[in-house]
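TL;DR need structure tokens for one chain.
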Amino acid sequence: MFSTVTTGAICGIHSFMIQVEVDTAKGLPCFQMVGYLGSEVKEARERVSVALKNAGIKLPPMHITVNLAPADMRKEGNAYDLPIAVGIMKSLGILEQDSTEGMLIIGELGLSGEIKKVKGILPVVRKAREEGIKVCIVPKENEKEAAVIQKIGVIGADHITEVVQYLKEKTKETRIRKELPLFDKGNFPDFKEDFSDINGQSVVKRSVEVAAAGFHHLLLIGPPGAGKTMIAKRIPTILPPLTEEESMEVSTIYSVAGLLSEDMPLITRRPFLNPHHTISVQALAGGGRIPKPGVISLAHRGVLFLDELPEFSRSTIDILRQPLEEKQIYIARNSGTFIYPADCMFVGAMNPCPCGNYPDLNRCNCTPFEVQRYLGHISGPVIDRIDICVETPKLTFHELLGTTEKNESSAKIRERVMAARKIQEKRYAEIGRKFNAELTPGDIRRFCSLGMKEQQFMERIFENMKLSARAYHKILKVARTIADLDGESKIKEIHLSEAVCYRSADQKYFRK
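>> reply
TL;DR here they are.
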């Protein structure tokens, strides 16, 4: 007898439906599986056979054929066990043929019949809803994650016998249908850190505010103990909260990576990733035999902070070139090409030399060669892709004595950032942009036009600083953000001057 069961699979961060086709017939007893299968999927035959036996369902000596369609798409992972088991039971007549109509089934089976957690439930259930499926049977541990998707029934099961019992019910009801109030618009997470903790560094704090307002990439250069890491870790406190759409985007990435849990079925605050400098290229960019998102993608819609930037290998830093520019990263493998989003705010922090005291020649004990080799870990193309590059000077004694009452809180700075963001949203509503940092050269001509006085100023800057076309556009985009913070519709010379100052450290350390 022939039967089918619908399940889901992941390709990159996207999901597609899989039809599990099962046929049982008289003949030489065997259990074969086809459909362009990975090794984990091929092993499902043993897991399913033993799980059914231990659940009290004995397979008769028959010729069992399982096909996972479409056959031209590679099937990887452990999520096919449960739908294969249900398909076999339908084909043997243990379950009615219409028992899984309008239903998606997914899950891994243990040898005892236990249903185990799988990755990527969130995008699979969302795709199922789009395809008109009414109910999803998922592992119990994935239940809350699946229930994030509204307007579709979700059933969490611990054991295959629970699934059999439910499918045999004449009148099926969605026993688990929780409208989880997980997303609260306008909800600001509580942070332990706050910008009021930071004394001095007014120029750096201003540059961080500009970077947050336009979602610009930022590089902080200064001696040890100047507060670079402290400032960077407080950037999430001045960013607007995730929108519902952004929250779903980020949660989908974390679901595919297997990082969602019952306690955290939905990501509701902007990610902040701070990997160690020993991280590998693959861990940063993503990939693997079964490709999964890397740290760059996990920082999507949030902040990717690389502390002690020159300590990262040059190949690791250079992997940032494409995602910093295109906001996504491509992973090519034999099984296909995978595209992961990587629209994050990159923040780097570094010392100016190995000892950290350059250019103070009275304290720096590094040779010119050592300084150049240290700075050479960061290539010119990567620096070109960073919008704001500022020095973080050593604090004076009087600045250290400053009190928190004199320092602006994160909430105060966030108000200005959000006001500038609203201006950008309104301006770019027709072209689908969100931030000034996303502007293309064509958009810059339209939205960053300069008056005659401003053009003459930028002409002098372009010649004197020997800017590349990319660096020139970066200055215009940063100036556009500064004008938005000031509530100005036109970019003025004062805005351009401030934006140019944010390239001074670039010229000082990397453009000699």
